[in-house]
Amino acid sequence: MQSSISIRDLKLSFGSFDVLKNLNLEIGKGEFLVLLGSSGCGKSTLLNCIAGLLDVTDGQIFINGKNVTWEEPSDRGIGMVFQSYALYPQMTVKGNLAFGLKNAKVPKAEIEKRIARTAEVLQIESLLTRKPAALSGGQRQRVAIGRALVRHVDVFLFDEPLSNLDAKLRADLRVEIKRLHHQLKNTMIYVTHDQVEAMTLADRIAIMKGGVVMQLDSPSIIYNRPANKYVADFIGSPAMNFYQGTLDKDNNFRGDGLSLSVTGYPFEEGRVAQNQQVWLGIRPEHIRSADAAQQCAVQMGAIVELVEPMGSDTQIWSVVDKQNYRFRVDGQTEMTEGDSIRIGFDPENLSLFDRDSELRL
């Protein structure tokens, strides 16, 4: 894959505190990459370094093969969309779209052409004569995206652009952004703390923690084969269920109230020691209950502790020998707090992580 952005040994420090730590990242041409992580993980900082809004401490940034580490933001060939709309309130939508182009001394005819094309793509033709105060939040964010779009750049940077919107608008605009990427095929880097946005938008996701990338992969691989316990716990709602225990030389797992064989599990070669301390993880959707549990290799009795109706499905919080298990059932399934139920799962659906390093086994 041809690289659009190459980040090499990037480091950013504020005094003695390292925000980004020798970070390396290759982003393919036309790729939609999502930087995902909790607050303070360094994702917005990395985006600002790429944009040129922050000076790096060490390392290099290349865009389309050009070293832009010390270039001004305006010379990097990027368009950026921020969390706040940052529209000029005294200007119309058309004026906001044209402002940057006029400053760059783009010919008037070309400005008109670009605005018309952008308005068509974002479906804001009817809004061009309005001022920001007369627009809804979703319409303002479309205009903010349009202001980046009219610049005809190869790389777009999005810094949590939907976080100020309500749930329905976020879902609608998420679809619009994905459709926009399919249509334009530009390189896009998108920062969010929302895993739903990440999973639905990304070609690849970079999950960050403490200024480093914990895993960089497709949404499917990150969800089904998390590289470490942090990624496994961060991705998924409700989160993965974890159980501490020991793996013996015969590949039998033993923990408090749970014993099972994981013979045939595809371990990484040379990664498993005798009597190794491990974390066992099982996702909520892989846990079966009631009659379906009778078909599972591992079964146990549980007590329903909490029921959370979600409409199409229901999330159940249950307890087995003081161990919590979260799982999902069909929204029409009737369960109440205090019910005694049977739950189960199959070993091929579990994940195993080393107790100390927390790396996937």
TrEMBL record:
One of its GO terms (biological process) is carbohydrate transport. GO terms for cellular component: ATP-binding cassette (ABC) transporter complex, substrate-binding subunit-containing. InterPro entries: AAA+_ATPase, ABC_transporter-like_ATP-bd, ABC_transporter-like_CS, ABC_transpr_MalK-like, ABC_transpr_MalK/UgpC-like, Mo/tungstate-bd_C_term_dom, NA-bd_OB-fold, OB_MalK-like. Residues 5-235 form the ABC transporter domain. Keywords: ATP-binding, Nucleotide-binding, Transport. SMART domains: AAA. GO terms for molecular function: ABC-type transporter activity; ATP binding; ATP hydrolysis activity. It comes from the Bacteria. Pfam families: ABC_tran, OB_MalK. The keyword Transport applies. The keyword ATP-binding applies. PANTHER family: MALTODEXTRIN IMPORT ATP-BINDING PROTEIN MSMX (PTHR43875), OSMOPROTECTIVE COMPOUNDS UPTAKE ATP-BINDING PROTEIN GGTA (PTHR43875:SF1). This is ABC transporter ATP-binding protein.
